[in-house]
Amino acid sequence: MDAQITSDAQMVVMHDSTIDRTTNRTGRVHDRTLAYIMAAYLELPVDRDGNGNDDNTTYHPPSLNQAVTFLQPKTFNGEPVKVEIEMKGGYWSRTQVGKLRDLLKSKSMLTTRVNVHSSSTTVLGYARDAGFPNIGYGVPSTDSPPTVATMQTYKATRVFLWQNMITQQVIDQYHDAEIDVMATTLNDQGDYDRMIQFDNIYGWVCDDLVAAQNYLEAAA
User: Fold this and answer.
1) Which runs of consecutive H residues, i.e. helices, occur in the chain?
2) What is the helix (H) or strand (E) element at residue 80, kind and residue range?
3) CB 217: neighbour CB atoms within 10 A?
4) Residue 68 and which of 100, 110, 190, 207 are 20 to 30 A apart at CA?
5) pLDDT at 162 over 90
6) Whole-angstrom Cα distance, residue 109 to residue 1?
7) DSSP class of residue 141?
């Protein structure tokens, strides 16, 4: 999930930089308070009632605290579910990263169960200094894959690579250094067909989880 900072320095779960597309309210996340965003209704991107507008649900955007509290007891096959948190947007200060650490610690989740990542090396440095056990680097789409030495500088154990960055040689250099490779973002069968050819990719980031799961089950 993507976590962003609100105007009152709180943490909210929201993908876009604005709340326009996914809720019935408007505005940039960083320009709105947590209370304002949490009072919005999430919207479906379809018109099921025929009134010409996207349909509202009965749900509200959660604070990061709500989301983590919800996930804390969840298990899958007897094991705690893994949690991935992207520190998204340009407002993650050292103080805010410390707040995230303290939140996870208060839920007994400051463990390898949780991976935090960012596309900012400055924020990665904050996460390293804060003592997060699992740190990932979301490589900007305009960059090249970082060296293993760069990853090790930030104590990053996971790297998110766009499809055009991925080769078996690139994967192998990370795998040999015990750095997990995540392929992003896979949207259709063509993407799946390309990525399944590679060995040692740790995971896929997908828009349609059901389609990706069905594909992998059929390929097994």
Assistant:
1) 34-38, 64-71, 94-106, 121-130, 148-153, 168-176, 189-195, 209-219
2) strand 79-80
3) 8
4) 207
5) yes
6) 15
7) T
31, pLDDT greater than 80: yes
| pLDDT > 90? residue 48 | no
Confirm if 22 and 1 have CB atoms less than 8 A apart: no
CA–CA separation, 205 and 192 (whole Å): 11
Residue 53's pLDDT is what? 74
Q: Is 211 exposed, middle or buried (0-12, 13-18, 19+ CB in 10 A)?
A: middle
Average per-residue pLDDT for the chain: 96
Q: Residue 45: pLDDT above 90?
A: no
**Residue 173 is encoded by which pair of tokens?**
């250099």
b/e sequence 139-159, b meaning 16+ C-beta within 10 Å: beeeeebbebeebeebbbbbb
Q: How many residues does the chain have?
A: 220
Residue 203, H or E segment: strand 203-206
**CA distance to 48, 87, 131, per residue, from 71 (Å):** 30, 17, 21
Task: Indicate whether 116 pLDDT > 80.
Answer: yes
pLDDT band at 74 (very low <50, low <70, confident <90, very high): very high
For strands 55-56 and 43-44, give the pairing: antiparallel
C-alpha pair distances (Å), 10 with each of 18, 32, 99, 130? 15, 10, 9, 18
Average pLDDT on 189-214 reads: 96
